[in-house]
Amino acid sequence: MADPKGFLKVRERELPLDRPVSLRLLDFADVHAQLEPDQVMLERQSSRCMDCGVPFCHRTCPLGNLCPEFNDLAWRGHWAEAAERLHATNNFPEFTGRVCPALCESGCVLGINQPPVTIKNIEVSIIDRAFKEGWVSPQIPARLTGSTVAVVGSGPSGLAAAQQLTRAGHTVAVYERADAPGGLLRYGIPDFKLEKRHIDRRVAQMEAEGTRFRCGARVGTDVTWDDLARRYDAVVIATGSTTPRDLDLPGRELDGISFAKPYLEQSNLAAAGRPVKDQLTAKGKHVVVIGGGDTGSDCVGTALRQGAESVTSLEIMPQPPAERPDSQPWPTYPAIFRTSTSHEEGGTREYLVTSEQFLGNGGHVHALRVATAERDANGRFQAVAGTERDIPADLVLIAMGFVGPESKEAVAQLGLELTPRGTYVRDDHFQTSVPGVFVAGDSGRGQSLVVWAIAEGRSCAAAVDAYLQGGHTALPAPITPSERPIALPR
Ligand SMILES: Cc1cc2nc3c(=O)[nH]c(=O)nc-3n(C[C@H](O)[C@H](O)[C@H](O)COP(=O)(O)OP(=O)(O)OC[C@H]3O[C@@H](n4cnc5c(N)ncnc54)[C@H](O)[C@@H]3O)c2cc1C
Fold this sequence. Notes:
The structure is a single chain. The protein is α/β, with parallel strands linked by helices. It folds into 3 domains: 6-133, Alpha-helical ferredoxin (Fumarate Reductase Iron-sulfur Protein, Chain B, domain 2, Orthogonal Bundle), CATH 1.10.1060.10; 148-242 and 403-468, FAD/NAD(P)-binding domain; 246-400, FAD/NAD(P)-binding domain, CATH 3.50.50.60. The protein is built from 19 helices and 16 strands. It has a 5-stranded parallel beta sheet, covered by helices on one side. A 5-stranded parallel beta sheet has the order 6-14-7-8-9. Helix 5 crosses helix 9 and helix 14 (260-271) packs across helix 15. It starts with 5 loop residues before the first helix and ends in a 22-residue tail after the last helix. The site of flavin-adenine dinucleotide has 38 residues, from helix 10, strand 2, helix 14, helix 15 and helix 19.
């Protein structure tokens, strides 16, 4: 274990400083300063890990990350071995080390009566060092099985499934409708949270291992789902949950009202230096973001960088408490009031607000009519009479989550079934009713997190490998399709 008395000697949690808000609002680069990791701070923080015998961090992390082991190795300065331990459970620690809400830290035993170990920062420091030192190299399979797999979708679940299956010796092609791999990592999450060079670097490793990428290929139209199922020995559907939840209110047809995802996608394309025709931008506008999750927060940071006049985020739920409530004890991931780096940068957040109507002028939105929300006897939110007010809004971004995959063509061409939640029906082995067709990630689980998507990809790959190898697989399967988090982050 790391220093047996570390947690007694070092009681404070320390994290590297972010770039000052005034500077980071000038660009879309990572909000975290790209400094050399502070070795002394890292060793001090990793020394706090108690290797507590029953490490709950293993359990609260869907990947089963071996946090006490890599904390110990980091403390001893054995960085290459620490990177190996990270990769034992996680194909892409550089993604989770940047965008994960750190479910591991909510389960850290030290967190019962002290601030938890800074596991996420230790994780990202290890993997960044490993890339810098050249310790991350392609793992080319020793032999090929002769089986072929098509993975459709190149988000974190598709990439994880493809990497595992390629390394197991199968010949894998990833079909992606966008022009570059990454899914929401590339065209959802902004660069200030995850610079795209991290995806490019990992994709280069995967290509060197033998995974083939077919970008700009939309399965269902460019190639049909049944054709794909005929041509490959197995198919993994990893197309995400990308159908946005709409807000059907009077005035919804007005210009200036957009779903969050296309707005963020355009901004990410522009940040990559790509031409974007008629880009929807917040410059000089009063912006209202409806929905307070990760997507809403990303809209806030993007709108502020684009030079919005004002940014107001609305949430129908009450403001969460500052501290863990008794109803959400350790080691659950508590719904507490969190301030993202985007919220630090500006804008206002309003809670218990329900949207009533979009108000327009000459066909364009100019305000959003809202009211205070309260729960009725059935627990549903209703507007409180007499509390209506108008918020100026030249741009309204709907960030109310996603209701399931875009499934029309896969259902029609393969005869797949959908759950009442709109996701694909699959069995305990990630397989649909069509033999050889599997489902991983948000398209099976519903809207979730990057860490769950990677766990899904790894576990689905094990199921596919077993299917192709007559029931045997040496690939790890950290989760089952029905496994749920100890407590879901909102
Ligand atoms: C704006 C935003 C911010 C987020 N921020 C965070 C965060 O900070 N932390 C976190 O943990 N999670 C975050 N999430 C959630 C996380 O990004 C997703 O849970 C995760 O990306 C799901 O991975 P996936 O592989 O299942 O699907 P996706 O990442 O959605 O990838 C699916 C891919 O399939 C492709 N595709 C779809 N249909 C087809 C087709 N017919 N043919 C070919 N390709 C197809 C899509 O183009 C896409 O590339 C965020 C989500 C959003 C929208």
